[in-house]
Amino acid sequence: MNLDNISRRRLLQGTAALTLGAALPLHRAFAKDTTIGFIYVGSRDDYGYNQAHAAGAAALKSLPGIKVVEEEKVPETDAVEKTMESMINLDGATLLFPTSFGYYNPHMIKMALKYPALRFEHCGGLWTEKDPKNAGSYFGYIDEAQHVSGIVAGSMSKSGKLGFVAAKPIPQVLRNINAFTLGARLANPKVTTQVIFTGDWSMPVKEAEATNSLIDQGVDVVTCHVDGPKTVVENAARRGAFVCGYHVNQAVLAPQAYLTGAEWNWEVLYPRFVKMFTAGETIPNFYRGGLKEQLVKVSPYGAMVPEAARKHADEVKAALTSGGYVIFKGPVADNKGKTVIAAGVSRGQTDPELEKMDYLVDGVIGATS
Amino acid sequence: MKADVGGSVTSSPAGQLLRLPAYGRRAAGAAEYVVIPALALAASLVLFGIFVALFGKNPLDLYFYMYQGAFGTWFSWQNTLTRAAPLILTALCTALPAQLGMVIIGGEGALLIGALAATSAALSLPSAPPLFVDLAMAAAGMAGGGLWIALSGALRHYRGVNETISSLLLVYIALAILNYLVEGPMRDPTSLNKPSTQEIGAANMIGNIPGMDVHWGFVFGIVAAVLSYVLIYHTVFGFAARVAGGNIRAAKVVGLSVGRLILVICFLAGAAAGLAGMMEVAAVQGRTNANLAAGYGFAGILVAFLARQNPLAVIPVAILLGGIGASGGLLQRRLGLPDASVLVLQGTIFVMVLASDALYGRLRLFKAKEP
Hints:
The structure holds two protein chains of two kinds.
Chain A: H1 2-20, E1 34-39, H2 49-60, E2 66-71, H3 78-91, E3 93-98, H4 104-114, E4 119-123, E5 135-140, H5 143-156, E6 161-166, H6 171-187, E7 192-197, H7 204-216, E8 221-225, H8 230-238, E9 242-247, E10 258-264, H9 266-278, E11 286-289, E12 296-298, H10 307-322, E13 328-329, E14 332-333, E15 339-341, E16 346-347, E17 364-365
Parallel strand pairs in A: 1-2, 1-3, 3-4, 4-5, 5-11, 6-7, 6-8, 7-17, 8-9, 9-10
Antiparallel strand pairs in A: 10-12, 13-16, 14-15
Helix pairs in contact in A: 2-9, 3-4, 5-6, 5-10, 7-8
Chain B: H1 2-10, H2 12-17, H3 22-54, H4 59-72, H5 74-98, H6 107-123, H7 130-159, H8 163-183, H9 217-234, H10 236-246, H11 248-253, H12 258-285, H13 296-306, H14 314-335, H15 340-355
Helix pairs in contact in B: 3-4, 3-15, 4-5, 4-14, 5-9, 5-12, 5-13, 5-14, 6-7, 6-8, 6-12, 6-13, 7-8, 7-12, 9-10, 10-12, 13-14
């Protein structure tokens, strides 16, 4: 059977070479390719979370000696363990990026223990000293980009009502809502953000309903934190509201309505990690960064954004990029009137308290439970 | 659909085969039930090959990678069997009530409730020995899932509510209950960005079958499928169920307690799916969270229909679908096909197998010995 496989493969390779000829990239012929596996929980072209990672993976494909294998729509069950093992056993992958939050524990941890010689990098998890040393977690402080987005949204809103369609009231989402609102209130202190939680990461019908309901209540700028913002962006634009994007640049979906957005910048991070990996350096087990480290970025402003708003947003962006600016700086009250960050306390991005956020700041209309 | 469900017992081939001696009838009938689905499967693979060729991919590559990804290596086999494990159990959730002519499609709900019940059992027994905890988890999971589907059965029997609709709607209720408990009362406060219950503890985890990387759920699935087969085809109870499935009035006339049959069969069906949920907690996730709603319950419906609701046929069909799932990844990676292409293949197989029903009793091969 083995012989059959080999001869058959040769035949296929021969056919491929004949038909594709010079079109085949040269580095395919290198014997020592490094194979890197990417696993996505949704589809690669969701205009959202998964597409952002796929764009990062695509940035690796031009590197010499790197082969990228990808699998989409892998559920957060033992299916992802088998996908990782399949990439390891059948494709020879030595560096894996399971990119969805639910892949981390127990699935990726289990694989990292089983294959101690290979490297596992997870997006969003909180790696601790108890976890295997060949595993790591990385994430971006995308709330910085949300903060800048909020400034633009706050200046553009005529009604003073912003809308936020969010998946679940978990710390990462609450931090985005709060950073967005704090940004909007820099531009217009009277602005409010109405938030609607849909309950899950990918609920297109509920997302559309939430968007419509927000606009019915007078909201004129909508943003979101769900896996695929396409539904929200398109619906809001159709109803004549402005939108701020999330995950990737969605301007192409609604060029007339897209003000700006908070984007991941994995196309910078992944080549950085892969260069460390191929050079034999250790990728840090716990890696975080924001605008300064180029892990996140702000979408180019839409043509409708006036000069004053651009200038204000750019100033804060520059301050965040140079590193001196703190978004969560006391005094901050939650929307029930309780002080959550006392006056004089600055919670910088690396503050672990922010990873536990369970409140909505003053100005947000909505509840976490 | 009801006609199809009863069909395995009473449809036209029986008429043709009655003239054969008993042993010949059995062999020819069994062969028919193997050959026709195999033809349907082959036809769908050919159709899928054409579909893939339209996208400029070589169908021979497709078949090679499907074989390699599903059954080509020992690793691929383990991958396939791991994926098949929950499907056997959730398929029984549809196949058992089908004997009564009921179409239950809510296995996903029973799986989630079973998982919640099993997790609660484990968390309420913090210092018990692992074997005891696992038995308690299994009992709680099966009871929870069983009651969930029995609810559909009761609604059908006492209130005349369509069991297909009620079992489907109960899935969403189960999901809402799960999300509420996991994000509220049962939440582990340290599960920040992935709301989950507390872990059941490493000691209570059920490991793999010795010598292979496949968890015990696969064995439990086979045992459950065999027991279901014996129950349906070799006991008086099963015979009564099939009589009621064939003609409910006739069953009542001969004095069968149809209500009891419905409740017991629905309970057993739900218990199978609940056990699948328990295994997902005890062998895979170690706790309950939204990850459990991975669609095993819905895939089980497909398995049950492809197996023509036969509990024994559920095993190979689940392995086949597990294999398609396992090879789907390789198709994405080697051929650059989107994940949706696997759904196209599953859909094609489903349609072809259902359409192949028309062939039963019409193939010359199986009615050769007419006098």
